[in-house]
Design brief:
558 residues; mainly alpha
Length: 558
């Protein structure tokens, strides 16, 4: 099955219909526009870079085992190494402590907190809901603030704030007090995740984000893994020290780890290229970032306006991407402590052993994240590495929804549970890429999409993951299986709209190239009529080379 090339009228019609390209590319950028192939096979639909490979130089020839693009200059490669050593490494470190402080409540719950505070059976659900409410509420102001504030101060500052509230939890005397602390921690952690992805999208090209986001997301797995091992070690060594229970010591030690990471961030986290304040990054690095962004058609920031919100609400981006992200946020069960509660229900492991065993699934999750994120970048197929982990997630939810299965099947299901999180950076990296052309618009879409999705975690746990139904969580696992199946299908809806935008954007580049050629031809005729003296020999040669290249490109257009 093949499709013929579009006529010039098709090109013009698609150009009129689209408002994707915010600013005309430079003459140099136009020279990279290549014609569409004469035939288009049906399977080209699954090639996300089908159109971009025709106007970007770093596409189809990229080898999967190369960290850099073949067209990256030595200067750009040094720039990328600096980004990875500073930005990517700090993302990993900060997300490790974030998730350590987020999930430690699950370990504390099964390590004596529930008994000491006389918590009701649904207390864990309430604590998780309060955290999620805080995350959602405090993201809303940053709809306006992300492009305005200095990200080199915001991200490390949030780290320190949630570290202080993590420390405060050690003195909790009741469920209400603990819920208040979890809400405040959520307020500090809420803007962190979309904020980091906003910064990553400001420095890296779209196809580079998944690998870096994957390293960033490995911090989540390490945080969950460390929380269990740390709680087990504390129970063995500090339980009862200075009259404090082991679960209280965990909050103290977590804060001691977290707060210094925030201060490190003030030194190495650079913010964004347009608001650069750094000891290590220079204006030359920011210029490289802007030049790389220009190749993808990213315009200079024009400032936030409510028209951007209106634009987002009237485009396909908001409804399609919000529902997509809603499905992702609800596809996972690991955040509700289901594995820990199942282990505890077996009544065969000590409390310290429970915490040791809880480190196994997130440790395996590090490998799942690496496969999904590196695979999406290396093989240039985000849709596949979104669907693969979600298919595995669907199978384990079906097994656990059945429940009356051999214990080995349950062990398998809990061991692969973190596949549901493995795709996170692939999904957010793709969203970054879809709305890459305008930084303010990208900020608006990222935040609204994240808020709409995350707000659901304030009420879905009460319906599907109520801790009073532990450890079977029958409704929860049925819900998770349905969500995973829907997410796989919806990914192809996103792919359709993404390819439609990419096709229109390509047509605009092509039409701009035609207009540039026509402008050169008129200028040549005018020069001949006026009898103007030709420019210097080397300048003329450069111009002839540019025009001949562009004329060759236009000439092969049907």
């Amino acid at each position: 099955m093949t499709a013929s090339l579009h006529s010039s009228e098709d090109f013009k019609r698609d150009d009129r219909e689209s408002n994707i390209l915010p600013v005309a590319p430079s003459e140099v950028e136009l020279l990279s526009v290549k014609p569409l192939p004469e035939k288009r096979h049906w399977w080209s639909f699954f090639n996300e870079y089908e159109y971009r490979d025709l106007y970007e130089r770093n596409g189809a020839g990229h080898k999967w085992y190369h960290w850099f693009d073949e067209t990256d200059t030595p200067e750009e490669r040094r720039y990328i190494i600096k980004l990875d050593l500073l930005i990517t490494s700090y993302c990993f470190l900060s997300y490790w402590v974030k998730n350590l402080d987020q999930t430690n409540v699950n370990n504390a719950y099964v390590s004596g907190m529930s008994e000491e505070l006389s918590l009701p059976s649904n207390a864990l659900t309430k604590l998780q809901v309060m955290y999620n409410v805080g995350c959602v509420v405090f993201q809303l102001p940053f709809l306006y603030l992300f492009p305005k504030v200095r990200m080199d101060l915001l991200i490390p500052g949030l780290d320190i704030v949630w570290g202080l509230f993590t420390l405060a939890q050690y003195r909790a005397k009741s469920l209400r007090e603990m819920m208040a602390y979890r809400f405040l921690i959520g307020c500090a952690e809420g803007p962190f995740f979309p904020g980091v992805h906003y910064v990553l999208g400001s420095w890296f090209k779209g196809h580079e984000i998944q690998r870096r986001g994957g390293i960033f997301y490995m911090g989540l797995m390490l945080g969950s893994c460390t929380a269990g091992l740390l709680q087990a070690a504390i129970l063995r060594t500090l339980d009862g020290a200075n009259g404090l229970a082991g679960w209280r010591w965990m909050f103290i030690i977590d804060a001691i780890i977290t707060i210094p990471v925030g201060f490190i961030g003030f030194i190495i986290w650079p913010g964004t290229p347009d608001k650069l304040h750094s000891y290590f990054f220079t204006e030359q690095d920011a210029a490289i970032a802007r030049r790389r962004a220009a190749r993808s058609g990213v315009q200079k920031s024009a400032g936030f306006s409510w028209a951007l919100v209106k634009k987002a609400c009237s485009s396909w981006h908001l409804p399609v991407l919000s529902f997509w992200n809603f499905l992702f946020w609800n596809s996972s069960a690991q955040g509700y402590g289901v594995f820990l509660q199942w282990l505890k229900s077996l009544d065969r492991y000590s409390t310290s052993k429970l915490n040791d065993l809880s480190a196994i699934p997130p440790a395996l999750g590090i490998a799942y994240v690496a496969i999904a994120c590196f695979g999406a970048d290396i093989f240039r197929s985000r849709w596949f590495f979104l669907c693969l982990p979600q298919f595995i997630n669907w199978t384990n939810h079906v097994i656990l929804a059945t429940w009356n299965v051999p214990e080995s099947a349950k062990w398998y299901s809990y061991m692969v549970e973190y596949n549901s999180n493995a795709m996170s950076s692939v999904l957010y990296g793709w969203i970054n890429d879809i709305v890459r052309h305008d930084n303010e618009y990208r900020s608006v879409v990222l935040l609204i999409v994240n808020v709409i999705a995350q707000q659901s975690t304030a009420w879905t746990p009460l319906i599907f993951w109520n801790s009073s139904t532990a450890p079977s969580y029958h409704r929860g696992f049925i819900w998770g299986a349905c969500v995973s199946a829907t997410l796989i299908c919806w990914t192809f809806v996103v792919l359709y709209f993404f390819k439609r935008d990419e096709r229109r954007y390509y047509f605009q580049r092509w039409n701009a190239a035609q207009e540039q050629l026509a402008d050169w031809q008129v200028r040549d005729l005018h020069s001949d009529d006026q009898g103007e003296v030709p420019p210097a020999e080397h300048d003329l040669a450069d111009e002839i080379d540019e025009k001949s290249d562009l004329q060759h490109i236009i000439a092969v257009k049907p």
